[in-house]
Amino acid sequence: MLSSYSEYLIHRKWMEQALKLSESAGEAGEVPVGAVIIDSSENAIALCENRKQRDNDPTAHAEILAIREATRRLQNWRLHECTLYVTLEPCPMCAGAIVQARVGLLIYGVDDPKTGAIRTVANIPDSAASNHRLRVIGGILESECRQQLQIWFANRRHRKA
């Protein structure tokens, strides 16, 4: 839960940055998902977007790329003092990586009813298999994140027709 309006504004600011990254991914033909990781001083240490198609890499989800960048920059695989912002609820692969990286706080925009592994379809962070208790806030800029995905998928279907 959010403790104050000022906290909400901070989360909104970083989610807006993630939305810009997801827009860039969508323009490049990727599913529009963007991720930002900030450190405990609220400095951006990773800004990434989906690159699965461009890199021909099934693991090139925005969250995975952001975790790789953040751990490289911090020279530490533990991100317990970091916050990860992502526009779409992480899938099982990303949820597992988030738990393994010991991310301190995950903030996501919109639930994923097909593969969401934080709260919607599965709950990896709270499962017995998780060795890290991840704090989670969902729904930051939810309607904007949902709209962006819906428009992208509608355009994709239209082009195929």
Structure report:
The chain has helices spanning 5-27, 52-55, 62-74, 92-100, 142-160, and strands at 34-38, 44-49, 83-88, 105-110, 135-138. It is 42% helix and 17% strand. Helix 4 (92-100) links the parallel strand 3 (83-88) and strand 4 (105-110). The protein has five helices and five strands; from the N terminus they run H-E-E-H-H-E-H-E-E-H. The chain has a five-stranded mixed sheet. The termini are far apart. The protein is α/β, with parallel strands linked by helices and 161 residues long. It catalyses: adenosine(34) in tRNA + H2O + H(+) = inosine(34) in tRNA + NH4(+). Its cofactor is Zn(2+). Its EC number is 3.5.4.33. Keywords: Hydrolase, Metal-binding, tRNA processing, Zinc. It comes from Plectonema cf. radiosum LEGE 06105.
